[in-house]
Amino acid sequence: MRKSILFSLLCLIAVVAVACGGGAGNNAAPSTGNKACSGGGGGDDKAAAADPYALYKKKGRNWTHKTAGGHMKVEVVELAEDHAMTKTWMLDADKKPMAGMPEPEPTKVEFKTAEGTGTATGEAKEPKKETVSAAGKDWKCVSYDDGKTWMAEDMPGLIVKSEHMELVEFND
User: Which residues form the domain of 17?
Assistant: First the structure.
C-alpha cells in the first residue's frame, strides 16, 4: 500500500514537472513553447495574465486528489512574499490519515522566475482547452498532452483530472 501511495505521489510530481518543462514559474514563454507554467495562454489575455503561483498564494487553501492508492491532500500552511510552505498528506479511501504515516514535513514553493535554456527547437503543439467538472465545480482547463492531463487555467499547476488522479476537493 505504501509503495502505491509513493508511486502516486511520484506520478504527480512527474506530471507537474513534465507539464512545466522544468521551468515552473517562467513569466516569459519558455523556449519549449509550453505555457502551462508561464501564465501564457496562446493569445488569451486572461490566461496570459495568470499568476503562475496563484495556487499557492492563499494560506489555508487546500486541495485533495483521488489516486489509485487513496487520496492526497495538499495545504498551504504558511505564506510569505517570496514563497509558500505546503504540507502533503497521504490519506486512505475514507480520507483519513494513513496509519503509521508521520506528520508531513513542510515543502517550500519559491515564487521565482526560472530562466529557460533556449535549447528547444520546433513549434509547440497548440494546447487543448475544455471545461472539466471536478470537486463540484466546472473548471476551465488546458491540456498539453492530448487530454491525458487537464490543468486549471487560472491556477497553473493544479491538476483537475488525469489518467491517474482526479481533484475531489478544493477549499479556498
Answer: 2-118+125-171
Distance CA 141, CA 159 (A): 9
Q: What is the CA radius of gyration of the chain?
A: 16
Report the candidate in 91, 97, 103 with the shortest Cα–Cα distance to residue 66: 91
For 71-87, letters b (16+ CB in 10 Å) and e give: bbbbbbbebeeeebbbb
- Grid cell, residue 127, equals 494546447
State yes or no: pLDDT of 132 exceeds 80: yes
> pLDDT value at position 49?
55
Please state the pTM of the whole predicted model. Answer: 0.71
Helix runs in the chain, H state only? 2-20, 45-48
Split at pLDDT 50, 70, 90, the class of 60 is very high
Question: For the chain, how many residues are written?
Answer: 172
Give the total number of structural domains in the chain: 1
